[in-house]
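sorry to bug you again but im stuck and you know this stuff better than me. what follows is a protein written twice so to speak, once as letters and once as structure tokens for the fold. id like you to explain what the token line says about the fold, in plain words if possible. anything you notice is useful, everything is just below.
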Amino acid sequence: MNWTGCNLQSATLPRADLRGADLERVNLGYSDLRGANLAGADLSQATLNAADLTGADLAGARLVITGLVYANLTGANLAGATFDGFPPQGAIWSDTTCPDGTNSNAHRSTCVRNLG
């Protein structure tokens, strides 16, 4: 599914199946994405600022120049996700699987130094 450039700010999408979706430049700021499956999705240049990604699966997702300021990544799976650009500022990292496969709790509740 191609959602490129859509404005979905404040969307309510808990447990949504967005595996492999093209979400480039999509605005998902302040959205409810709890438990969503975003594995393999392309979120390049997307805005996820203040989004609730609690328990979301972002394994293998492409997060290049993606805005994750104040995003809640509690229990999210980022294993194998591709990050490039600026690190998420003010994000909540609690029991998060970092892109390198380690757990944020082993790194003082952050994945910033383990983004791959």
